[in-house]
Amino acid sequence: MRRKAGVGAIQKQKLQQEKYQAKTSTLQENQIEQLSKQLEVFRTNLEEFASKHKAEIKKNSEFRKQFQAMCASIGVDPLASKKGFWSVLGIGDFYYELSVQIIEVCLATNHKNGGLISLDELRNRLIKARGQSKHHQEISKDDLICAAQKLKVLGNGFTVIPIGRGDYMVQSVPGELSMEQTAVLTLLSKLGGASISESQVVDNLKWEKARATKALKNMVQDGLAWVDTQSDEPTYWLPSLFFECVSDGVSSAGS
Predict the structure, then answer these.
(1) In what order do the strands lie in the sheet with 235-237?
(2) What totals of helices (H) and strands (E) does the chain contain, helices first?
């Protein structure tokens, strides 16, 4: 028969396990210390880079996007830093100003679009409001998304909603869109129009007729859509996309 391990063997095994755990902890601490030193060096280099290219970061949207990505990689948020080096850099001021202007545009248009505006229309309106200087035209979608997301501190009144194909909507009224409403917006983005019918929703989303009817009527009740009953089948218009289409048509005609 196999003999059971004695007390001495058990104690020896326990001592070996304790030594192994102590060695593991030491290695982990050394790795964390080395990583902290590397991050600190990276942070210092990032500050020097930002100071050297401050003007380029502010005026070049693509450069600004890459800089934000570098900051995020080491957990630095220059927009949230109001003291020290990052406040001197003034990058946060750019986004704070942009956030205020986003609020102004949303408040000025929510009686027309029910508090839902496409990112493209928002950008066009902001460029007109900010002026015709070249640096004003450099506002990118990423800038708008970044600034709009900062408005979450005000509550759930401002939300950035992805609707597919790289398109976004900004909701500026409290409350969340239902899954059905988001699906209809995504479908409209895919179809490239500003209006949709119940049959289009049923055919494209493979919904039951009752589900499509409820989703569209809820959008009308929430002020997100207008209904046109003059045709054989009611057509539901989304003013947030309608005004964008009108603007695009005017721009195309003038070019």
Answers:
(1) 195-197, 235-237, 226-228
(2) 11, 6
Amino acid identity at 151: L
Rounded Cα gap, residues 184 and 126, in angstroms: 26
Is the alpha carbon torsion for 67, 69, 73, 75 positive or negative?
Answer: positive
Closest CA to 180 of 232, 236, 229: 236
Each residue's pLDDT, cut to its tens digit, for the chain (255 residues) gives 455 556 666 777 777 777 777 767 776 777 777 766 766 776 677 677 777 777 777 677 777 777 777 777 766 666 555 554 445 455 666 777 788 888 888 888 888 888 888 888 898 888 887 765 555 557 888 888 888 877 776 666 678 888 877 788 888 877 778 888 889 988 988 888 888 999 999 999 999 999 999 999 998 988 888 899 888 889 999 887 765 554 554 344 444
pTM of the model: 0.58
Among candidates 254, 249, 247, 252, which has minimal Cα distance to 123?
247
User: How many Å apart are CA 188 and CA 135, to the nearest integer?
Assistant: 32
